[in-house]
Design brief:
The structure holds 2 protein chains of 2 kinds.
Chain A: H1 5-16, E1 20-26, E2 29-34, H2 39-48, E3 56-64, E4 73-81, E5 86-94, E6 100-102, H3 111-122, E7 125-127
Parallel strand pairs in A: 2-5, 6-7
Antiparallel strand pairs in A: 1-2, 3-4, 4-5
Chain B: E1 21-25, E2 37-43, E3 46-53, H1 61-65, H2 70-78, H3 85-100, H4 106-134, H5 138-159, H6 179-203, H7 207-213, H8 221-226, H9 231-236, H10 243-246, H11 267-293, H12 315-320, H13 322-333, E4 340-349, E5 352-361, E6 368-372, H14 374-378, H15 382-386, H16 391-400, H17 405-409
Antiparallel strand pairs in B: 1-2, 2-3, 4-5, 5-6
Chain lengths: 168, 410
Amino acid sequence: MALTNQYIQEKLQEKFGDLVSNFEESYGLLSFEATAANNLKVLQFLFDEPSLQFQFLTDICGVNFPDDAGREISVVYHLHNLSENVRLRFKIFVPVAAPDVFTACNLFSSANWMERETYDFYGVNFVGHPNLKRILNVDEMDYFPLRKEYPLEDQTRIDKDDEMFGRG
Amino acid sequence: MLAHQQHHITLPEGSIEKQTTTLNVGPTHPATHGVFQNIMELDGERIVSTEQTVGYIHRAFEKLAERRPLYQITPITDRLNYCSSPINNMGWHLTCEKFLGVETPKRVDYLRVIIMELARISDHLICNSIVGVDTGAYTGFLYVMQYRELIYEIYEEVCGSRLTTNIGRIGGFERNFTNTAFEKLEKFLKEYPKVLKEFENLFARNRIFMERTIGGGAISAERALNYGFTGPNLRAAGVDYDVRVHQPYSSYQDFDFTIPVGKTGDNYDRFLVRNQEMWQSLSIIEQAYKKVQEFKGTDADIFHADVPEYYLPKKEDVYTKMESLIWHFKIVMGEVDMPKGEIYNAVEGGNGELGFYLVSDGGRTPFRLHFRRPCFIYYQAYPELITGGMLSDAIVTMSSLNLIAGELDA
């Protein structure tokens, strides 16, 4: 039996009830939201449940919604069931003041660096991560650059000394 | 300066007593083929542990992409895996097309397949010949570079550039393939199989090469999946996952090809899988070229979809018609708003599943764009692959993983 998005949704709702919500399908891909405290339980259930078997972690990344109070930081997981060839996406939201999320490192070895990258750019604190430190940016950096509060440099600024950039 | 005033290096505590040697490989080292640093603990020549440092050429692509309209992101994707940048460009355009609901004509799909498979050949060619270099056979590398040149000439004929190609547009290509481009393609199709055969003969059953690569850097299918391996590295471990087959894009379903798989996931299997994939790519190109030739008359002039909102108008119209001029500016400056929503789309890149996760809030630029970069994900497995092995095998393992620093560091 082919694994359908509807079946996955029913299975998840049966197991987690109100803890999973906002089911939607975008471009054929099932997408839903879980509460931050349950991210690991959802991952583990999707991994273990014999009829689901989402055992390949495609990607973890962060998104910042500065205007959404209490849900500023989102962590997005993309999972793949390779034998049925079905993908899904699930998201959790945490407040920027306490961005604590449980690590998926014990389930997926690949999560290690993906979570370090998410920490590096969004400051998500992955609780239980074996080696949570910056990965692409320098260790001395004291901010999380992909958050929307750090805009890119104004392209029209004129206070730069051109001579310093070889254009003088 | 008096002798007693000289500065001395202060060694960390216990460094004299310890029985292992710390060796710093990289970040710029002739054997790393890119900016990779590894701090290794060696017991004689055996590796006890290693720690990778990455990010030396991080260029904040994801942040930059948040200010750029769609077309200005294409040159960024060039600089991910620069050994096969057309795949990245087209992967990005395919993502945009899927997101915007653009249907491409078949001829465009086939032309894209030709370019993408050429890019795959050039990517695998570099990787395999570099494995040869690291095992002591420089000749193969120099020899096949001539034939990569033929591929680059085709890119040049189609889009004007060679390495960072910025090829194509949303909906198709910037111009139709010229006769010269097809002639160059024919030349490549005629000359390359012989060369690939010769290259294969040089390595595949070469005793020195086999003894250097068999068993080195091996990984089981289970561990490879857990580490998020994709592409040839996963297939070498015995898992037949290929995005071209599992989620066909650009009409890959119209082609007849097999997915080569290995067994042990070691350096030798990775070499063989890449080698076989080049033969498969050649066959796909031949099929695609045949299909392209079937388009006659006006059909043969189709090289882009009809999407005036995203496809630049003809240059002569831009100079003579006001409406075209307006659209030209709107597209170049990215004044066309995107729909709201989010999408994950993947293509089979040179070294694995290259994914684009795009979140749009309805503005002119992505709200968030994340690149799933295959080698960033599988490079974490490197310590597990090399621990307990010899230092010289670690070098071969690194090159046979096909790590591209540009992609890894984004």
